[in-house]
Alpha-ketoglutarate-dependent dioxygenase AlkB family protein (Pedobacter helvus), 203 residues
Amino acid sequence: MMEQLAFFPEQGKSSGIPDGLMEYVPRLVGQADGQQLMAHLLATVPWKQKIVQMYDKQVLTPRLSAWYADAETYDYTNLRRSAPSLWTPELLRLKALVEPIAGVCFNSVLLNYYRDGNDSVAWHSDNERALGTHPTIASVSFGQVRAFDIRNKVDHRQKYSVKLEHGSLLIMKGSLQQDWEHRIAKSTRPMGPRLNLTFRVVI
Ligand SMILES: O=C(O)CCC(=O)C(=O)O
Ligand SMILES: [Fe+2]
């Protein structure tokens, strides 16, 4: 039960999360720098609301998104999805900040813009073949603190939550995408905008 989870107030992380799945780094980016970067990205990124097929209905994704990648990744992936934008100096700076911590050189980033508490991402794992097995994904958050929930795919009672704070970095790794699902749930409490960037290696 999410309501019953005990939070470490200084970390915003529920206790008992198995080792080797996630690394949480608060304040990767400072308060003011983060606000400036978020405002810049919200204003300049070509945000799109995607349409997904749900059984016989077409539904708008409850958030805005965009993706950026290097030119090589572009050549390969544009066969399968909408074309990414090419890296901007601001995104390259953020990428350079997370890479030494993640120990990975990323070639793409997916941006999600949650306008308010009605925006969300449903339970899923990022286990598409293009990400390989046991991918390391670096997730940077700005703006509204939202709960990042994970649950075990087989035993849904194994469920944990991390509050992703403004300027924080969450490294997802190990078997997280294979054995666990994650989501950002909708909230009935009033919520401001939140920006999330997930740096990925697409092969
Ligand atoms: O917004 C987040 O923190 C998570 C986003 C996510 O799971 C995804 O883009 O795959
Ligand atoms: Fe995800």
